[in-house]
């Protein structure tokens, strides 16, 4: 299947800081692609390059075969963009925001009016179309931004952290809209939320420090990390001094504690017996293999340190 | 061609239409106060300037000042607001419009605001005062005003593009725009300047605006040197505004 999005050895530097380093990627048409990474990983930089808002320091990117460097206008004709922050025009009504977008895409009223009716209906905003966005809740504003990005029927939709700051109901409502777009266009999504990526994306890439760390479907990524041998262990009684003992065992890779429950990453299956034979083995009440979540995969790859 | 510019201009005019009454009240108050204070207050001391009654001498400058101030205000604040607060410039930039469309749209808007507000001040002065003109002089005056509004729109666009802190736009107005306007002979004849600095004052674009506008409105023609100054300044400012915008957006 031909690629909707291609990144070819993209590098973006700001002085001595390299935000993205020789990053390459191909996203097939019709895919919901999720780019995951902590703050500062380079996700937004990549979206800005792909939407022609920023020029790469080297390399080139292509959307539906058009270069962002040589054919920016053609690229912008084919893309819809939902930025991280709502950039609605607060002096225009919801409908006028969509009309302006249609006009900027060279659409005629006969083309944009029915499309806008359809989108307002789809996003549940038809009844509020003559109100100003300032009077909308965060979720409604976000839905309006999504509707605006779809007015000209783009072939590739870029969503940069689309549900950040929304309540769970609004998030799920927005997920529904994104699910409806599946197979009608290519969706390129960045997010911090693992459940969002798990629920929406056909393919997920985890990146950090401007580089790709893992790539595959949610199931593939979790499978790959199920070999990480993470176990949840419950101890009898007071487990106060156990942490130090566990951290001292050569076959224990990491220890996380939550009350009397410990989460241990072991070097392999053969480490189970020495664990049971160790000084704390007699105090184990329950031990079970922990199936990794996408978040475990993410943390394992990008670390636990909080980013600025 | 320029489809994007007209779409952006159309948006700005729709927003202006919604607040036209409050906009006009605020814009009329300032020049009208100056006209009444200077035109009538000083009439007893300055009966005429070069044979022109003093209220008639200052009226064209006040109308032009309203227009260019409105052009500068609209372009600078609008560009700043759309870039820094609403971030709608980013929305425009992910559509097929070009940087030229965005800058030209904002310049059109500044010019339109200047033209509308200048016209209203002109009409108010016409109704409330004995100020009268020969309407056959209007085309030359409007040409002068169009070029001046374009220059100030471009200057405003540049300020709104470069300046990130809003208070600095206010500072540019107080330190650059207002002195340039007041030095250009709205309230007094240029011959009041010492001969040594007069040639420099005559080269100011604002002198070309206000002296040119006065000559156009009172005598029906813009002196060629002033006209050349206006055309050249508007052209240079336009190129600089587009260059500045492109450069800023590439950051």
From TrEMBL, chain A:
Q: Does the keyword ATP-binding apply?
A: yes
Highest taxon above the source species: Bacteria
Q: Which Pfam families match?
A: ABC_tran, DrrA1-3_C
* Residue span, ABC transporter domain: 5-234
Keyword line: ATP-binding, Nucleotide-binding, Transport
UniProt-listed InterPro entries: AAA+_ATPase, ABC_transporter-like_ATP-bd, ABC_transporter-like_CS, DrrA1/2-like_C, P-loop_NTPase
GO MF entry, a single one: ATP hydrolysis activity
Name of the protein described by the UniProt record: Daunorubicin resistance protein DrrA family ABC transporter ATP-binding protein
Automatic annotation (TrEMBL), chain B:
**How does the UniProt record describe the way this protein sits in the membrane?**
Multi-pass membrane protein
Native species = Geomonas silvestris
**What residue stretches are annotated with the ABC transmembrane type-2 domain?**
22-248
**One term under GO cellular component:** ATP-binding cassette (ABC) transporter complex
Name assigned to this protein: Transport permease protein
Q: Where in the cell is it found?
A: Cell membrane; Membrane
Superkingdom, taxonomy of origin: Bacteria
Q: Name one Pfam family in it.
A: ABC2_membrane
An example Gene Ontology molecular-function term:
ABC-type transporter activity
Q: Does the keyword Transport apply?
A: yes
Question: InterPro entries given for it?
Answer: ABC2_TM (IPR013525), ABC2_TM_bact-type (IPR047817), ABC_2_transport (IPR000412), Nod_factor_ABC_transporter (IPR051784)
Q: Return the similarity comment.
A: Belongs to the ABC-2 integral membrane protein family.
UniProt entry tagged with the keyword Chaperone: no
Key words, A-Z: Cell membrane, Membrane, Transmembrane, Transmembrane helix, Transport
Q: Which residues cross the membrane?
A: 20-40, 52-72, 114-133, 139-163, 175-195, 225-245
């Amino acid at each position: 299947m031909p690629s909707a999005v291609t990144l070819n050895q993209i590098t973006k530097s700001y002085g001595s800081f390299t935000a993205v380093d020789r990053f390459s990627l191909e996203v097939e048409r019709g895919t919901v692609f999720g780019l995951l990474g902590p703050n500062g990983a380079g996700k937004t930089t990549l979206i800005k390059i792909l939407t022609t808002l920023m020029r790469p320091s080297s390399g080139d990117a292509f959307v539906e075969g058009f270069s962002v460097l040589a054919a920016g206008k053609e690229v912008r004709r084919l893309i819809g963009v939902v930025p991280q922050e709502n950039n609605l025009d607060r002096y225009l009504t919801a409908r006028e925001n969509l009309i302006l977008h249609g006009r900027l895409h060279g659409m005629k009223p006969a083309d944009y009016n029915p499309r806008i009716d359809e989108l307002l209906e789809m996003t549940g905003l038809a009844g509020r179309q003559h109100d100003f966005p300032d009077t909308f809740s965060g979720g409604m504003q976000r839905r309006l931004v999504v509707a605006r990005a779809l007015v000209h029927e783009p072939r590739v939709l870029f969503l940069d952290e689309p549900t950040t700051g929304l309540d769970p109901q609004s998030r799920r409502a927005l997920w529904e809209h994104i699910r409806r777009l599946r197979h009608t266009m290519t969706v390129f999504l960045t997010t911090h939320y693992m459940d969002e990526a798990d629920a929406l994306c056909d393919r997920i890439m985890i990146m950090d420090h401007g580089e790709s760390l893992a790539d595959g479907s949610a199931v593939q990524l979790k499978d790959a990390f199920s070999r990480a041998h993470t176990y949840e262990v419950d101890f009898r009684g007071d487990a106060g001094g156990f942490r130090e003992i566990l951290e001292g065992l050569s076959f224990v890779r990491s220890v996380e504690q939550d009350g009397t429950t410990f989460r241990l990453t072991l070097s392999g299956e053969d480490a189970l017996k020495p664990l049971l034979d160790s000084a704390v083995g007699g105090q184990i009440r329950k031990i079970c293999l922990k199936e990794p979540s996408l978040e475990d995969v993410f943390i394992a790859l990008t670390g636990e340190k909080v980013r600025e | 061609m320029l489809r994007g510019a007209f779409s952006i201009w159309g948006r700005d005019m729709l927003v202006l239409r919604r607040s036209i009454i409050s906009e006009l009240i605020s814009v009329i108050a300032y020049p009208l106060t100056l006209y009444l204070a200077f035109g009538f207050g000083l009439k007893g001391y300055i009966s005429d300037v070069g044979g022109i009654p003093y209220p008639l001498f200052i009226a064209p400058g006040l109308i032009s000042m309203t227009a260019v101030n409105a052009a500068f205000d609209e372009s600078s604040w609008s560009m700043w607001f759309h870039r820094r607060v609403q971030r709608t410039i980013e929305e425009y930039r992910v559509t097929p419009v070009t940087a030229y469309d965005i800058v030209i749209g904002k310049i059109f808007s500044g010019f339109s605001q200047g033209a509308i507000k200048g016209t209203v001040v002109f009409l108010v002065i016409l109704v409330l005062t004995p100020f009268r003109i020969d309407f056959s002089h209007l085309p030359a005056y409007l040409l002068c005003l169009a070029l001046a509004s374009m220059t100030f729109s471009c200057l405003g666009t540049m300020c709104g593009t470069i300046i990130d802190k809003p208070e600095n736009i206010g500072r540019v107005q107080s330190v650059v725009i207002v002195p340039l306007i007041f030095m250009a002979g709205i309230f007094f004849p240029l011959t009041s300047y010492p001969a040594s600095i007069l040639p420099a004052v005559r080269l100011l674009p604002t002198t070309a605006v206000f002296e040119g506008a006065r000559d156009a409105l009172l005598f029906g023609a813009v002196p060629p040197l002033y006209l050349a100054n206006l055309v050249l300044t508007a052209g240079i400012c336009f190129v600089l505004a587009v260059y500045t915008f492109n450069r800023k957006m590439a950051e």
